[in-house]
Write a structure and sequence with these properties.
Residues 368-409 are annotated as: Disordered. The protein is α/β, with parallel strands linked by helices. Among the domains are: 19-83, Alpha-Beta Plaits; 108-379, Peptidase S8/S53 domain (Rossmann fold, 3-Layer(aba) Sandwich); 421-509, Sandwich (Immunoglobulin-like). Helix content is 24%, strand content 20%. It has 16 helices and 25 strands. The protein has a seven-stranded parallel β-sheet, with helices on both faces. The longest helix has 21 residues, at 687-707.
Length: 708
């Protein structure tokens, strides 16, 4: 389904709480399904915290310990108990997305016969489609997003910060005829349901919330280009309810291909469920894509190799995957619902089955299902009879994909005359020397009566203005180089004029080191296992006196390995980060986790990130290389001007985690290697060693601050 991008490493743990206590009281989210109805008394007796209830499916999301989850499994009223699994989208590697590539074309539109439907005025009008995915880029010039919902933990915004959902949405509903980029059903009411985070991960509960939103908003079609090999009775129940309510659920079968023998069934859920329509992928030669999963749940195949569509940050490009095939089927259903409004979903599905091109073995088979998706002749469709063509917005002409213009963003779908915009910039500074960019602009005449301006910094929209505004100050900048572009947009959200890109160089405002120690606290803890002659006593005492480190049971345990969570907590106290309870997108860090606030702050500051499986792993030990990278980022040490030609240790190379920070620390005497000239970056670090390094680094940065 879609490519995930991941950065860095992650951390968390509180020094003052014993690890055994944490393990004994660890709680997780479980989905509890009841036989007949949700039993409130049983939930209270379970001592869990109810997070969400899906009454239609008799399912509850419950935060509870594993012991109590096992207790619930033994109750006769309970049908199942399942963990809140993490689900991801997977595709072959993403290409380098660009704004224009004339040789790219969406071959799939003609391949399924969508253009013939448009000739008869069938474009998906009045049909609502929910794309349950990573969100949709709401500023994209080729898409019109009517609304949406976010169920991820870190934002209520359903804009796409991954790209997968925008690509899927464009296959269904792109509507940019002047550049030849069209979706299957360009006039549908498109809705973004954001359940996948910026790394392409989703929890099962987030997906269920997205499905529930689509049901509550009475969507006609749900597209799910995501999946897992783990069955979920909760998801199955809710999707069955959605289907019973008349919603068509289309799902990608997954990119796990098949076994060498070609006999294994590797189709993912939810495509595997009887109530969903499973879609596989073929190439231009109607050959099954090698990545497309095979199995009894495949119902249709559709174009899924090198499919050109929209992408985040107003870009375009090709992707491959069954994720790209599924939206062709969703778009096809939208056209049929527009053309035949009185037919049921099952009747529409039968129409598509009757029109397929049979591939592979005669009849339905595990590789191609019924066959290749083809739209029927709609020349006599009853949905055309009461249509007022003057009230609908149709494509100007059938797009010719080979004619994609070299300026997708600046081309005007409405007005032939370009709108000229003069954009000027000026650099100012605040009292503390922080830079800010002041922008002013003036547009030529021939503007729409109703229009607005969109401002882009480094090709990402940062602000929008009414037609009478001509001034803006951007104070969200740092010491870097930026480009600004101003675009004029009509009342339909279509861009029809743009300024030249203006470059602003702020590298001269590079921030200098700045640090002061926190004030000392009253009655700091004393540690019975830190003797007066202990080699790191001064560092431990100083950090303890300022409330930066804690022990447990009157001991510091200096020789224990430092944990990921401990480092986050220490950095959070040192720099006074917000430690309030908050949601993170890590599956093993609940809202009420003791250092959730520190973890979220570290993520937002770009100091740490998560693992591929969307976990934080707070009790994992930290290596020496990881330590250098983390505290270097936290202190914001300058590494740009370092001479990195020669590493200070024989086992440290440019590929070593924390390489630049290790070089800086060694140069300034903050860290030392071993007698054999090595640093051993992959070895773990003790609590005492970490305390000593933090204290030495703090003294160094404080001294540098005073010299500036």
């Amino acid at each position: 389904m879609g490519k995930k991008w991941v950065v860095g490493i992650v951390l968390a743990f509180l020094l003052s709480i014993p690890a055994p206590t944490l393990l004994a009281e660890e709680i997780s989210t479980y989905l509890i399904g009841f036989e007949d109805e949700v039993e409130e008394e049983l939930l209270q007796e379970s001592e869990g915290v109810v997070l969400e209830t899906w009454d239609e499916a008799n399912v509850v999301a419950l935060k509870i310990s594993e012991d109590r989850a096992d207790w619930l499994r033994q109750q006769e009223e309970v049908a199942f108990v399942e963990a809140d699994e993490t689900i991801a989208v997977e595709t072959p590697p993403l290409p380098a997305f660009q704004q224009s590539q004339a040789e790219w074309r969406n071959w799939g539109i003609d391949h399924i016969g969508a253009t013939e439907a448009w000739e008869y005025g069938i474009h998906g009008d009045g049909v609502s489609v929910a794309v349950i995915d990573s969100g949709i880029d709401t500023s994209h010039p080729s898409l019109d997003v009517k609304g949406g919902y976010s169920s991820v933990s870190y934002t209520d915004d359903y804009d796409d910060d991954h790209g997968h959902g925008t690509h899927v949405a464009g296959i269904i509903a792109a509507n940019h005829p002047s550049v030849g980029l069209m979706g299957v059903a360009p006039n549908v009411d498109l809705y973004a349901v954001k359940v996948l985070d910026h790394n392409g991960f989703a929890t099962l509960t987030a997906i269920l919330r997205g499905v529930q939103w689509a049901m509550d908003e009475e969507m006609d079609i749900i597209n799910m280009s995501l999946g897992t090999l783990t069955d979920s009775e909760a998801m199955k129940r809710l999707l069955e309810t959605a289907t019973e309510e008349g919603i068509v659920v289309v799902a990608a079968v997954g990119n796990r291909g098949e076994s060498a023998e070609g006999t294994s069934d590797r189709i993912e859920f939810p495509a595997r469920y009887d109530t969903t329509i499973g879609v596989g992928a073929v190439d231009e030669n109607n050959e099954r894509a090698s990545f497309s999963a095979s199995g009894q749940a495949v119902e249709f195949v559709a174009p899924g190799v090198d499919i050109v569509s929209t992408f985040k940050e107003r870009t375009y490009g090709p992707l491959s995957g069954t994720s790209m095939a599924a939206p062709f089927v969703s778009g096809a259903f939208a056209l049929l619902m527009d053309a035949y409004p009185d037919l049921s979903p099952d009747e529409l599905k039968t129409m598509l089955i009757d029109e397929v091109i049979d591939l592979g073995e005669p009849g339905r088979d595990p590789r191609y299902g019924y066959g290749l998706l083809q739209l029927p002749d709609m020349s006599e469709a009853p949905g055309r009879e009461d249509r007022n063509e003057n009230e609908r917005e149709e494509p100007d002409e059938t797009p010719i994909e080979e004619d994609i213009d070299d300026d997708l963003i600046g081309d005007d779908p409405i007005i032939e005359d370009k709108i000229l915009i003069s954009l000027t910039t000026d650099i100012e500074t605040d009292e503390d020397g922080t830079p800010k960019v002041t922008l002013t602009w003036e547009a030529s005449e021939a503007l729409h009566e109703s229009h607005e301006f969109h401002l882009y910094r480094n090709d990402e929209q940062i602000a929008r203005f009414t037609d009478d505004e001509t001034f803006y100050t951007d104070d969200e900048v740092e010491a870097d180089t930026y480009t600004y572009t101003l675009v004029v947009v009509d009342d339909q959200g279509r861009e029809y004029g743009t300024s030249d890109k203006v470059e602003v160089d702020l590298t001269s405002f590079e921030e200098e080191l700045s640090f002061t120690w926190p004030e000392k606290i009253a009655n700091p803890p004393q540690f019975a296992d830190i003797a007066d002659d202990f080699w790191a006593k001064e560092a431990i005492d100083e950090l303890s006196a300022r409330g930066i480190i804690n022990g447990r049971d009157g001991h510091f345990y200096p020789n224990e390995a430092i944990r990921r969570g401990q480092i986050v907590a220490i950095m959070g106290r040192l720099f006074d980060w917000d430690d309030k309870d908050t949601m993170t997108h890590f599956t093993d860090v609940p809202r009420d986790y003791f250092s959730a606030g520190y973890i979220q702050a570290a993520v937002e500051k770009g100091i740490i990130s998560g693992y591929n499986d969307n976990t934080f792993r707070p009790n994992d030990a930290v290596t020496r290389g990881q330590m250098a990278q983390i505290i270097g980022r936290a202190f914001d040490i300058p590494t740009d001007d370092l001479e990195l030609d020669t590493a200070p240790f024989s086992d440290v190379t440019e590929e070593t985690t924390g390489y630049e920070e290790i070089v800086y620390f060694a140069k300034h005497g903050i860290i030392h290697g071993y007698q054999d000239g090595t640093f051993q970056p992959n070895n773990t670090l003790t609590r005492a060693q970490f305390a000593q390094i933090v204290y030495t680094l703090g003294q160094h940065v404080e001294a540098e601050t005073k010299l500036q």
